[in-house]
Amino acid sequence: MVSNPQIYLDISIAGEKIGRIVCELFAEKAPTTVKNFRSLCLEDHCIEEDKVLTYRGNYFHRIIKNFVVQCGDIIHCSGEFVKSDDAGKGGCSIFATREEIHNGNNSELQCFGNFLDENLGDFNASFYLAMANMGTPDSNSSQFFITTAVSPHLNGKHSIFGRVTHGKSVVRSIEYSKVDSDGFPLECIKIDQCGDWDILKGLPLFNASNDSIGGDTYEEYPDDNEDLDSEDFSAAYEAANIIKESGTLLYKKKDYKNAYFKYNKSLRYVNEFIPDIEVDAENNRKFTHLKIKLYLNMSLVSLKMKRYDEAIKFSSFLLDMNEVPNIDQCKALYRRGEAFVAKKHYENALQDYKSCQEINPDDRAVMDKILSLEKTLEDKKEKTKRNIAKFFSSS
C-alpha cells in the first residue's frame, strides 16, 4: 500500500507569517482530485506557455466561523488583495482544455477544467480537506475548503480528499479572522508557499508554540483534542497545568515569547473547562488557582518582552478576581506598577506601589520604589514650576 502524500501551505495574515498547515491527501480514495491539488501546490503545470497554475500567492475569499475556510480561486483571488464581484467564482484545474482557457472571444483569462466528484463522504469531523465545486455535481476545478466543525449538511455533496494533520491552530487563526457580511476577510490571508512536506521540513509556527517541552502535546485549541473529554475536569486540569509548566520551562530558558504563547494556551484551556462551583467545587478551586498563576506569569513575561500594556492588562485581570491571596495581589500590583513606570504613568504606578505596601508593609523593595517615585514626581513638579516662572518673567 502506497503511503498518502503530504503537502504544506504556509499562511500569512496581513503580511505577518502565521505558520504551516500540513495535509495528508487521500490518494487512493480521490486520485484525480489529489493529482490536481498536489500539482497546484508543486507548480508543475502551465497554461498559456509560461502561465503556471499555483496556489502560491492565492488568498482565502470565504470564511465562516464554525463551518469552513475556503480558498483556491486562482483566477480572481491571486495577486493583489481586492474584493471583486468575481471573487470566488473562478478557478482552474490542470485538466483545463485550450477552449476552456480562452472561453471564446473573452480577452480575460478564463479557466475551469472541471472534473468529476470523488469520495463523496460524510463530514463528521473538523479539518477535512474538500473540493468546493461550482454548485453542481462534477464541477470541481481548484477551489477547496477546510472544515472547522462537523458539517453533516455537506454529506455526499463534496469530494473529501484529505485532512489536516498539523497546523490546526493555523486553521483556527484563519477561522477567527475578521470578515465582512459576506464572509470575505478584512485582511489578506494568503498562501505564501506550498509544496510536498516531510518531517525534515519542520512545522514553523509564529503565533503559538508547538514545543513539546514538559510533555505538552495538546492542541492549541481545546476542542481540537480528540482524546480529551470535556466532562472530565480532572483530566482537563492536568492538561492545562502541563501546558502552564511547559511555559515555565521555556521562561527559565529565557524564551519569553514562546513562554507567553504557552501561558496563553493554558489560559484558553482554563476558560474552556473550569466547572461551575456548584458542579465541582474542588476542580473549580484548582482551576481558579491556576488562573491566578497564569495571570501573574503573563504579566511577568509581558514585562520581560516590554509589552507593558499586556502586563497592565493581565495584572488588572487578576486584581478584578475574587478571593485572591494577598501575596498574589501584591505581586500583581507591583508588576502593574512596573509597567506604569515604563510608560511614565508615575501617578498610577505610585498608587499601585502604595496599595502593595498596605498589603505587605515590610517589603523594602516596594518602599524603595515609593520613595523613588515620590522624588521623581516632586522633581517633575518643581521643573514645571520653574518653566511656568520663566514664561511669566520679564525679558
Automatic annotation (TrEMBL):
One of its GO terms (molecular function) is unfolded protein binding. One of its GO terms (biological process) is protein refolding. Keywords: Isomerase, Repeat, Rotamase, TPR repeat. InterPro entries: Cyclophilin-like_dom_sf (IPR029000), Cyclophilin-type_PPIase_dom (IPR002130), TPR-like_helical_dom_sf (IPR011990), TPR_rpt (IPR019734). Its EC number is 5.2.1.8. One of its GO terms (cellular component) is cytosol. The keyword Repeat applies. Residues 8-196 form the PPIase cyclophilin-type domain. TPR repeats lie at residues 330-363. It catalyses: [protein]-peptidylproline (omega=180) = [protein]-peptidylproline (omega=0). It comes from the Eukaryota. This is peptidylprolyl isomerase. It comes from Zygotorulaspora mrakii (Zygosaccharomyces mrakii). The lineage of its organism: Eukaryota, Fungi, Dikarya, Ascomycota, Saccharomycotina.
